[in-house]
Amino acid sequence: MSLVVKDLHAAIDGTEILKGLSLEVPKGEVHAIMGPNGSGKSTLSKVLAGHDDYEVTGGSVTMDGADLLELEIDERSRAGLFLAFQYPAEVPGVTMANFIRAARQARMPEGEELEAVSYYKDLYAKMDQLGIDRKFTARAVNEGFSGGEKKRNEVLQMMMLDPVYGIMDETDSGLDIDALKVVADGVNSMRSPGRGFLVITHYQRLLDYIEPDHVHVLADGQIVRSGGKDLALELEARGYDFLKEEVVVAG
Amino acid sequence: MEATLERGNVLEQPPENLEGVPAWFNESRQAGWKRFLELAMPTRRDEEWRFARLKQLDFEGVHLPDPEPPAGHRGAAGLEKRAARFGFINDTLNESEVNLPEGVICLPLDQALAEHGELVAEHFMKSESTLGSAKFTALHQAHLSTGMFIYVPDNVQVADPIEVFHWLSGDHIITFPHTLVVTGRNAQVSVVDYFQSDSTARNAWAIAVNDLVAGPGSQLNYLVLQDLCDQARMIQVNTTTVARDATAKSFILNVGTAWARQESLSRMEGENAHSDMISVSIARDAQEYDQRTFQHHVSPRSYSDLLYKNTLYDESRTVFSGLIQVDEGAHFTDAYQTCRNLMMSETAEANSMPGLEINADQVKCSHGSTAAMIDDEEIFYLRARGIKSQIARQLVAQGFSVEAITRLRNEALEEIVLSFSAREFSRISERVVT
Amino acid sequence: MSSEAVLDTGTQEAIDIDRSKGDFSYPESHKFDAGVGLSPATVDYICDVKNDPDWVREFRHKALKTFESKPMPTHWATKDLENIDFDVIRYYLSDGTKPTRSWDEVPDDIKETFERLGIPQQERAFLAGVEAQYDSEAAYSNVKEELEKDGVIFVNSTEGLKEHEEIFRPWFGKVIPTGDNKFSALNSAVFSGGSFIYVPKGLKVRHPLQAYFRINSENFGQFERTLIICDEGSELTYMEGCTAPKFETTTLHSAVVELVAMKDAKLQYITVQNWSSNVFNLVTKRGIAHENAEVRWIDCNIGSRLTMKYPGVVMKGRKARGEVISIALANSGQHQDTGAKMIHAADETTSNVVSKSISVGEGRSTYRGQVHIPKHLKGCRNNTECDALLINSSSRTDTYPAITVRGNQHATQHEASVSQVSAEMLFYMQQRGLSEGAAMSLAVNGFVNDLVREFPMEYSVELKRLIELEMEGSVG
């Protein structure tokens, strides 16, 4: 069982960004995607989540055998796909507690009501684990949050929604080292044989804390190289440029 | 049998003298009638009625209700903790419950006139209606028979809100709800006016006047929860005067009526006077909310802040016309005014006329008005968490009004407003699904 | 006031000359004079002098009836309008209807007038064509030869309607119908002078065309009429300047300006008015922008007793754009009642209004705006910003916008603020050695600086100088 991306092509406003991307993330594994700016990293995460701005022009994505691209945005989420956003939207007037509650409620069968006491117990426990002040439950979603608070909030939601596949889109950007550790601990605590992760990052730093099973390099809309975690270290040392040369040579 | 007599059109029926009230009150009714006859109906050319749908001013067949109102009260449950509760059906008192500190006068107006005539006279309809509905205010004055008179003496604080329910029943009837609240020095009170009806109130009218007089250092909160049936119409004229160091806060929630015209004037008469004017309107179907506001800074160093938020569905329509006026000499005024419209359909229409007239120096004034639809990125974010599109839209729309509701800074009052608005939002949301 | 100390001699000289620049007049010697007051005979007199075609005569008479039937708009506008006495105004004064193409042929006093105002110099320096109107008619009108060869028509209204009827008549009175308001009707009855311009398809006119409107005579009404048509894909910048001497009695200026930007055209209309404080300036200005076309009004209103001017853009074609950039300065005895009208009539149209006003002494500035986005349109946007600066405690400002939005496919945003020059800022500048007046002047220039940049260099320098002049004596 895995998340399988095959020859995926996607465009925004007629410009192709993903140009035949293929990837397989089996349950139980953590895959990292690294790549320079503009390589298509964020496009990949938006396309997997189903953002309307992007048009899938070719290829397929399946999640445990089911066609992901057939599903609406919220259906994908309920099917077990979680995207931790690089830039989470602010939702004025909707409190964190009500928001996560609505998301949990959406996962329950029609006519069944979420039980409030156990919900809050669960929520508070996870907030404590991530070092999030309980006052945050009454604050509007992401409104006035610092960069670090937003990212912790994303991880909190992931823990609360218990996905099968988690996509972390540049979760390390804008985090200081302490926040980075907290976020990584959260992700690591969720690693299990029944769950896969796709960690998208520009820097190797995050991978010191979330150790990947595989590393893929994305350039110009395609995976140009795959390898073990050592690949990340190599990239860190040599930069992305050497890859371009290799691609040229290979091409 | 008086009750079965055919009642004449209210616009052609001079008021009769009431018994058991001071002479001045009957004179005031007659003066109101005279003024009503003198004033012309609003026309297209009246700036105060710009963008207004004048055809809504339809009084054909509208008459005063029977003196014996239909039995039974079907209003909202209201607050759990309250200092007093009064209920009127078609302007006739049908329930009262009082648990107030000593010295507070909280009585139906007719009773207050009999027992505290001079005190009522001192504050009764002292302000001129300047925002367009003078003719209807005069009609109110002419036919007004009861209402609420609330007086909180110096240094008395009423902790829990006073609730007043105005219930309309029967087609083509017209009511004249009246609320007069006066606070003494450093006094404190919250009053909630509920306007509700049963579905028989077709072509029914409420022409309401509420005058709030906030004495020095006092704090006066006033809420209107307007939840009339879709076939009723309403005109409401509110005048608030705020003395030195006083804080007046008024809040209007609109979820009902076919058409509501609301005129709210707040006058800052002393230094450090503070007025908050807040409104949340959730308009759907062919509903229309026509709101005119006036922040009048007479005194220097006073403060006012207005926030009106409209969420518009279907063919609904809103008009917001707001004016901040800073008089000559009212230096160091801070006055703000914001109207935000959330457009939820392709056919809804929002009109805004935010105005400023500044005649003083060292003022900080601004106004802003926006109209926008729901941000796609917000919806994407919610849906990416598995929340269905309809629910996501409902949550965001509800969140939009929360900013205004939390300005009440009072948990119980916020909760009651939220319960009304949440019910309306879920009703709209469910309706769209089916 | 000791702002002199901080100004170098050159700047000071420039200001000293500038101060009296518009305030002079020459003895009248008009060949044609329609006399005092307005009647059908006045209209006939004007038609006869101009040798108007029959349809124009008919148009004028109809307009006169409309004017007479319309009430003054005092239910929303200032009561000061009631002080205009239409019976004591002179509606037509000229020395003939044919402007010369050479400054040498312009009568001496008129030529001197425009020389003192710097028009011939500006023409040589940076303009593609100039029309100079003196009272009712243009005395001089010339356009660079190469533009003429390219097919640009730049004539006065009389010639435009007579010689180029097929081009101008289809749009004449169509952007602004006679009955739009009382003053557009008045103009339609007695109009004279103004520019009629046609820019052919695809032609981008690199240098601006300019008109200068000069009132020389007392008790006079100037009613120029301008119609500019930019054909598909063409571009034009047009500038107008206006001055009048200070008289004891009131003077009326009531123009109608119609702009037409066809598909993909760009039309920019720049006004710098510096009327003397006895002028009622009641002007109707509107443009139509077709598909992907752009109409920009860049407006600076200084002087006059009362200015009422709300330039508008009707965005008729998809992706059309409209813009109003406006600076107004109201000094004691002046009321600048200005604003903008943005009428969205097609999908994906965008409009932008930025208005900054300064009220000095007992001056009053008013912003009136209208933004209209009707039903069944998609993707329209409006942004409006109005900022008012109050200089003295008796200064006044008002803002009265009206915004109608229908549907959920649009975004509108209106923001307005009122502020003063902060005491801390003045203190800071004074501590650096500036007089209070100079500091105030600098602060005001800073307030409008981002808008002044929208004016061509030659105008922006003049503008800053005009603002400094108006600010003199405002403090202390």
Q: In summary, what is this structure?
A:
The complex is a heterotrimer of chains A (251), B (434) and C (476). Chain B is an alpha/beta fold and 434 residues long. In chain B, 21% of the residues lie in helices and 38% in strands.
Give an account of the 3D structure:
The complex is a heterotrimer of chains A (251), B (434) and C (476). Chain A has 251 residues and is an alpha/beta fold. Helices cover 37% and strands 29% of the residues of chain A. Chain A has a six-stranded mixed sheet, with helices on both faces. In chain A, helix 4 packs across helix 5. The mean pLDDT of chain A is 89. Chain B has six helices and 20 strands. Chain B has a ten-stranded mixed sheet with strand order 2-1-5-8-10-12-14-16-18-20, covered by helices on one side. The longest helix of chain B is centred in the last third of the chain and has 23 residues. Chain B is globular. Chain C has 476 residues and is α/β, with parallel strands linked by helices. Chain C is globular and about 65 Å long.
Identify the notable features of this structure and list them briefly.
heterotrimer, A: 251 residues, alpha/beta, Rossmann fold, six-stranded mixed beta sheet, four-stranded antiparallel beta sheet, 9 helices, 12 strands, globular, B: 434 residues, ten-stranded mixed beta sheet, 6 helices, 20 strands, 38% strand, disordered N terminus
Helix-strand string of chain B: HEEEHHEEEEEEEEEEEEEEEEEHHH
Main sheet characteristics of chain C: 12 strands, mixed
Strand coverage percent of chain B: 35-45%
Structural class of chain C: alpha/beta
Which spans of chain C have pLDDT < 50 for at least 5 consecutive residues?
Answer: 1-19
Chain oligomer state: heterotrimer
Distance between the termini of chain C: 7 Å
Q: What do the pLDDT scores of chain C average to?
A: 88
Largest sheet of chain B: 10 strands, mixed
Number of helices of chain B: 6
Roughly what is the average pLDDT of chain B, rounded to an integer?
Answer: 93
Helix content of chain B: 10-25%
Q: Pair with the most extensive interface? A: B-C, 40 and 35 residues
Tell me, briefly, the overall form of chain C.
globular
Strand portion of chain C? 35-45%
- Tell me the number of helical segments of chain C per DSSP (H or I, 4 or more residues long): 12
Domains of chain C, number: 1
Number of strands of chain B: 20
The termini of chain B sit apart by 49 Å
Rg over CA atoms of chain C = 22 Å
User: Judging from the principal axes of the Cα atoms, what is the shape of chain B?
Assistant: globular
